[in-house]
Design a protein that fits this description.
- The structure is a single chain.
- By secondary structure, the chain is an alpha/beta fold.
- It has four domains: 1-42, no CATH class; 44-154 and 196-362, no CATH class; 156-190, no CATH class; 386-543, IlvD/EDD C-terminal domain-like (Glucose Oxidase, domain 1), CATH 3.50.30.80.
- Helix content is 34%, strand content 13%.
- The protein has helices at residues 21-33, 39-42, 63-76, 98-115, 130-138, 167-177, 183-190, 205-216, 231-249, 258-261, 264-276, 282-292, 300-308, 324-329, 333-340, 356-361, 421-427, 464-467, 528-537, 550-558, and strands at 46-51, 80-85, 120-125, 145-149, 156-158, 161-163, 385-390, 393-400, 410-418, 440-443, 475-478, 490-492, 512-516, 521-524.
- Strands 7-8-12-11-10-9-13-14 form an eight-stranded mixed sheet. It has a four-stranded parallel sheet with strand order 2-1-3-4, with helices on both faces. A two-stranded antiparallel sheet has the order 5-6.
- A hairpin with a 2-residue loop joins strand 7 (385-390) and strand 8.
- The protein is globular, with a radius of gyration of 24 Å.
- The two termini are 35 Å apart.
- Bound molecules: FE2/S2 (inorganic) cluster (FES).
- Residues 59, 91-92, 127-128, 165-166, 199-200, 204, 206 line the site of FE2/S2 (inorganic) cluster.
Length: 574
Amino acid sequence: MTDDITHPRGLANGLTNYGDNEFSLYLRRSMASSMGYSREALSKPVVGICSSGSGYNNCHRLMPELVEATKRGVMMAGGLPIEFPTISLGETFLNPTSLMYRNLMSMDVEEMIRAQPMDAVVVIGGCDKTLPAQLMGVANAGVPVVYCAVGPMLTSPYNGERLGACTDCRRFWGKYRAGEIDDKTIKEVEGLLATTAGTCAVMGTASTMACLGEALGMMLPGTAAIPAVHADRLRAAEASGRRALALALATGKDQLLPRDIITPDSVENAVRVLLAIGGSTNAIVHLTAIAGRLGIPVPLDRLNVLSDTTPVLVDLKPTGEHYMEDLFAGGGLVGVLKELRPLLHLDCMTVAGETLGERLDRHEGFIDPAIVRPLDSPYQAKGGLVALFGSLAPRGAILKRSAADPTLFETEARAVVFSSLEDLAARIDDPDLDVRADDILVLQNAGPKSPAAMPEAGYLPIPKKLARAGVKDMIRISDARMSGTAFGTIVLHVTPEAAEGGPLGLARTGDRIKLSVENRSIDLLVDAAELERRRAEGDATAVQPTFKRGYRKLYMDHVMQADGGVDFDFLRGE
Ligand code: FES
């Protein structure tokens, strides 16, 4: 098969250019032979296995097992599997934030798939930014793709309850800050939050994106929620390998590329699923970036329309009470898709080679209504996320209403402003800070172009003196993001950001801010003349990025705002 240079397959794909293709193939086979492959093996169609294991990524700890299982699937189907590595993004190990490196990983994935010979690829990952980075990367890589997530962690028992990263990380840290638990307890909890391989155990960003990957059709049916350590996870990898080989061999109308699967309709299905699972706010940014690679817009005003017509069906933390292992036991994502069926575009194609509707027609498995509620008896009547617009956020902001306090939804209050993360760290716990429980906390200069590169800092801590007085939630507004595992009345992704000249940067302590979830509005109640005066005055406290070279400079020069998915302008599709 690899000998046919005019219709290249397998190892004959994309030959290294020496000006003589037959020589290139001869040399490539010669070098490949040094790895112990037989001539017969080298004549097979090739399925690349894009691996993202790393000693800095606890969530991908079982990558070697998954790669082996995927290889087994490819070989059972008659292909040659070839593993290759890319960058890996371990969420808690990256400075200033993993989001800054998502675009770099996406470029690595796209270019290594395009540059190396393969007829199809299985891409394996899952920790927070890895899955979005990989889907962004495969969108234009030009070969069929099956995505295989590493799967979520299991929880750990602790004093009669269960602990799972990372909603419980924040819950216990909040108790510790409030003085409700001591040093010994927080140390015990620290050792029990993440005790298995896999991604965070709740409906955080990683689990949300795995569900969206399946909803988009890029993963095999029923695979999003399988725990990382369950044998079904390995069977999913094996099946992904088999399926990738079938896609590699497909011709004509059976050929399926990511652009045949990620379409405006499947993206809208993914938004519906995001809303129904009470998914992470980060997913809006990631989905915007993935769809944007194929030129598909995800407008925030459309999000509001979909949010009002899509109930929350899934009772999982941080919106509800359960964990991903419960969603798996309760039937997995297919239960959500079946309940949402009247709201979905059913003719969307999936990597399984069937449409979403065909897939749902043949499903007969158990669905636990305690985990996935019926459409006519939902967990919450309206979707989990809303976009807000107004004088504070002319191009939009996001609120996760399903994890917020509804008593704060219609509020006008005084702003207490922090000009940067450094300012926040220096003053938030100052006993002399002039702050009350009914104030609105504002953080500036934490957006995509800030030195911190849009960290998950939008979950501003409740000032210690208020936390100790029993305050559990306050309205918090910023151009930062929030972990998908966090909860609270938190307005995020304010666009344009302060560092890009957005009105957020003009807010001052003492200003009045009005939030209306009903009206989808967020306004800074300061007259235009005063805002112009402040703009002319400039902000001496703003921290300027100091990235002068390398990838960080590329990032600063080309990163777009949240409404562009925080992607690079030169990577967006037509
Ligand atoms: Fe990897 Fe949470 S740390 S998904």
